[in-house]
Amino acid sequence: MNRTLSDHAGLKPAPAIGLLVAGACLGAALLALVSTERRHRDAAAGRDTIGTATSAVGAEASSPPGAGGPSPGPSRPASAPLSRAPQDGYAAVARAAMPAVVNISSFKVIRTYEYSPFMLDPFFRDFFGEEFPGLVVPRDQRAMSLGSGVIVDDQGTVLTNYHVVEQAQEVKAALSDGREVRARLLGADRRTDLAVLRVDQDSLPHAVMGDSESLQVGDIVLAIGNPFGLGETVTMGIVSAIGRGSLGLADYEDFIQTDAAINPGNSGGALVNTRGEVVGINTAIYSRSGGYQGIGFAIPSNMARDVLESILKNGRVVRGYAGIAVQNLTPEIARAFDLSETRGAVVASLDPDGPAASAGLQRGDVIVSFRGKPVTSDNDVRTQLSRLKPGDRAAMEIVRDGRRREVAVVLAEPPAGQRGPARRR
User: Fold this and answer.
1) Domain shared by 236 and 281, yes or no
2) 144 in helix, strand or coil?
3) Which residues contact 141 (CB under 8 A, 6 or more apart)?
4) How far apart are CA 181 and CA 73, in angstroms?
């Protein structure tokens, strides 16, 4: 019985044990659910923390040195992904200036002479002799030159280099919208290597001519052109030097030197500042290999503007005549004249009936200042004289017999024999 009582005693609590087991299972399920929810919340909080930390690091990196890190304040939103961040650069400048730059292609016929195919046989050449008239025959070859140009007004006036269109029988301009149109030559100036074209199209985008006198060494500039015929190309650099001369590229040289890449085909293109203004016309490079080596030259916009206005008004460039020839002041010349000056331009010769002689200049005078600007070489005098017109007054400071004097020369019309362009050096 005891066993039976004990059996009965073991059977009676069965319902209670079942309830306990069910409750434990339910509690475990609830605990797992709560734990899972907590992990999700922690993960989300971690992501927010990482985003905020990234913003804080970015803010700290952008703060100036010594600022002590970001100041406390309300939390900021996370930084935008780098792929969506705005790009700092000169895209707006290039986008505004590029439509005004055109590609210039000029065609000319070059006559060459070569042996007649019949006379290439040594037998016939020996039989008729080297001087036989039919031995050499002329042949015409069509040559093409590629360059660039800048539209400078809404009438389709294009400024480019003279050497781009020199002796061309046909000139075409490829516009930024893809059209190719004929261009006609309005005038050219070999002495500055500039030419003015006109395309008969309306409402063309045109560039704004800036003031090259305001340029300083170190200013950022963009060179826009058509290198190697590839199409519109933009390169960036700085102004490396100003007032470069005596390079043998033109008679009147006052070049802007830049390290912006200028290659064959860039000639005649625009050199623009960071405001999108044209401050120079790209014209040449200094290179030992024929390619870009970090030294390029551009004609200042102020000189180009003078040539442009004179051609549009007169059909040619009209310059004043002073009747003076100058040469550089070298140490040898300074010792010969017993001069203490080390910089300047020496008056080498004078037209006895010219304006300079009438103003009192003499051979051997040393010009040390021209219109308020110091003269460092003979190129300074020639370049500044080239920009003056008949009737303009040129005030000079000279040194004669060790004493400084002021001389004013009023320029006249050039003699008839000197109106044509000088032979290029």
Assistant:
1) yes
2) strand
3) 109, 110, 111, 112
4) 62
Distance CA 318, CA 329 (A): 29
Checking if the pLDDT of 52 tops 80, the result is no
Sign of CA pseudo-dihedral 215, 240, 385, 184:
negative
Q: How confident is the model at residue 1 (pLDDT cuts 50, 70, 90)?
A: very low
Q: Scan for tokens 């003076």, then name that residue.
A: 324
Q: 135: domain range? A: 97-199
Q: Cα dist. 363→95, 343, 397, 405 in Å? A: 53, 17, 15, 14
Find which of 138-142, 296-300, 331-335, 403-407 is predicted with most confidence, using mean pLDDT.
Answer: 296-300
Q: Where are the alpha helices (DSSP H) in 12-152?
A: 14-62, 91-97, 122-128
Kindly tell me if the per-residue pLDDT of 53 is higher than 80: no
Residue 56 has a pLDDT of 38
Please tell me which residue in 267, 310, 377, 386 is annotated as part of the active site: 267
Q: Answer yes or no: is 168 within a domain.
A: yes
Same domain, yes or no, for 341 and 394? yes
Whether the CB-CB separation of 375 and 326 falls below 8 Å is answered with no
Q: How much is the average pLDDT of 321-332?
A: 90
Mean pLDDT of 241-265: 88
Q: What average pLDDT score do residues 298-310 get? A: 95
Residue 22 DSSP class? H
**pTM of the predicted model, to two decimals?**
0.69
Q: How far apart are CA 148 and CA 227, in angstroms?
A: 9
| Reported confidence tier of residue 129, pLDDT bands at 50, 70, 90 | low
178 within domain boundaries: yes
Tokens of 201: 């199209």
Lowest mean pLDDT among 217-221, 291-295, 398-402: 291-295
Q: Based on the residue annotation, tell me whether 163 is a catalytic residue of this protein.
A: yes
Catalytic residue from among 163, 206, 240, 259 = 163
* Residue 119 or residue 331, greater confidence: 331
193 is catalytic: yes
Measured CA to CA, the distance from residue 225 to residue 298 in angstroms comes to 12
- Domains of the chain: total: 3
Q: Which of 193, 251, 254, 380 is catalytic?
A: 193
8: annotated active-site residue: no
Q: What is the CATH number of the domain that holds 361?
A: 2.30.42.10
